[in-house]
Structure formats: structure tokens, C-alpha cells
Specification:
With 190 residues, this protein is α/β, with parallel strands linked by helices. It contains six helices and six strands. The two termini are 27 Å apart.
Length: 190
């Protein structure tokens, strides 16, 4: 089975912040595919399974949303490993080094200053897991922390549906039975 993890800060006051776009994408992807979230007892995450019934071209998957602050995202790793191997895990998160509205798929890499990724890398003990990077732009004249912990501008909010559609298509493509190199080429060329 494959696993998809959406990163963000759990408390509701962070829900619409730029830093929570990974969380929002995974949450809405599950909803769009009629998945149901359940919260396992005493565990720091929400989990949903989607079987994509009637579709032979997409693998079944389990989706995770950490119920922690971003810096503690790694707390879910022991539970994720019960469902999927590292080769079958996709992490969805915000990236300031990519223009708003763009997405990129990476097979591995460093945390690049992202605290959620740092936490996951430390917990996994490795950094070679797939990442779907969703561009939020880098602030020109704003403090980085204030920027990521702020809501999208009105113009960005108008463009969010298109960005979500691209991210949904990328997740579905990653879950497909196509070779990973081909999937990465298709996503990164869009």
C-alpha cells in the first residue's frame, strides 16, 4: 500500500495559512475521493484509506494528516511504517523556493530549512522519500515566519482552485502504476 502525508500545523487557527497548503491538499483530495478520516485512539494523526474501486491504474493508499505542530510531524512515522515502506511514501508540503501555483515532485533531498521535513527526516532516519512541493513563493520584504504563518492574498485565493487541481492530479499520477521516472517527468514539466 502507498501512503501520502500532508504537512501543516494542526490547530484550526493555522488552517488557511501558506504553511498548511500540504495539509489542505491532502485533506481535500481525500474528501474529493469520498474518503473518510478517522482518528485512531491515542495517536497523533488522522488516517483515511482510499481503494479507488474500479480503477486498476491507481494503487490503494492510506493518507495521513499529523495532528501536531509542523515541527513535530515526525511523531507519525512509526504508524506510517506500519502501512507503507519508505519507497511508497509521498509527503506533500509548502515550498518557498517555488513560485506560487507551481508544483514539483522530488524523489529525495534535504529538508531545505522546512521544519516539518526536518522532523520527518529525523524520524525516518533517511531523506530518500518522495516529496510533492507546492510553491508558495518567497516573501520579498516580509519576515519568513510571518509570511508562512499568514493567509494567502486575495489574488492567491482566486488561483487556489487551479493549484489544488494540479496537486490532485499529481497525487493521482504518483499513485498510478506508471514508472516513477515517467511520473516525475510529467509532473515537473507542467
Amino acid at each position: 500500500m502507498r501512503a501520502v502525508i500532508g504537512l501543516g500545523n494542526y490547530p484550526k487557527q493555522y488552517r488557511d495559512h501558506r504553511h498548511n497548503i500540504g495539509y489542505k491538499v491532502v485533506e481535500l483530495f481525500v474528501k474529493q475521493n469520498n474518503g473518510k478520516w478517522k482518528k485512531p485512539v491515542f495517536k497523533p494523526f488522522l488516517e483515511a484509506r482510499i481503494g479507488f474501486e474500479g480503477r486498476q491504474d491507481i494503487s490503494p493508499a492510506v493518507f495521513f494528516l499529523p495532528q501536531t505542530y509542523m515541527n513535530n510531524s515526525g511523531r507519525i512515522v512509526p504508524y506510517v511504517f506500519k502501512k507503507a515502506s519508505l519507497d511508497d511514501i509521498l509527503v506533500v508540503y509548502d515550498d518557498m523556493d517555488i513560485a506560487f501555483g507551481k508544483i514539483k515532485l522530488k524523489p529525495k533531498g534535504s529538508a531545505g530549512g522546512h521544519n516539518g521535513l526536518k522532523s520527518l527526516i529525523q524520524a525516518f532516519g533517511r531523506s530518500d522519500f518522495a516529496r510533492l512541493r507546492i510553491g508558495i513563493d518567497r516573501p520579498q520584504d516580509k519576515d519568513v515566519v510571518k509570511y508562512v504563518l499568514s493567509n494567502f492574498s486575495k489574488e492567491e485565493q482566486r488561483k487556489l482552485p487551479e493549484l489544488l487541481d494540479c496537486a490532485f492530479a499529481a497525487i493521482e499520477l504518483w499513485l498510478s502504476n506508471q514508472p516513477r521516472d515517467k511520473v516525475m517527468s510529467i509532473i515537473n514539466s507542467a
